[in-house]
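Lab notebook, bench 4. Still working through the backlog of constructs that have no structural model yet. Next entry is a single chain of 145 residues. Request: give me the structure tokens for it.
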Amino acid sequence: MRRLLSLPILAVSMALANPALAAEQGPESEMIEKLNDPEFQDGLTSMMSGFMGAMMALPIGEFAHSIEKAIPENMRRDREFSDIDRDATVGDLARRDDPDFDRNIENKMRQGTVMMGFMASEFGAFLPELRALGERMKERMERLD
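Model written out:
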């Protein structure tokens, strides 16, 4: 698992070590500032809410009944799909288990955008070290050639 996590870090460090690529990405401080801007966060939350609304409107009832027919009776769980209304949407199912689903999901999306700002700030503080690591790795790789 550690190796899988180190691959993206390696890729980012190599990309940031390349000055031409770093210049194309623009100054990271601008991105960090944007991700910490409450107005930007509100807009991002609003956009995600729109996507979530569209996803919650997807019909799922007929699909659920089709799935139930495809599962052999001896493999079915306690809860069957037949108790799902044939006209149900994804949102209907989410609200069935959580009556405050709409409010809760909106709060979680807002918290997520704030967390993205925090993470960007922390990652921004780490960037100089990451660039230095990328440069050291690049130099070592060049010596191998």
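Notes after review: The chain has a mean pLDDT of 80. The chain has seven helices and no strands. Flag for follow-up if needed.
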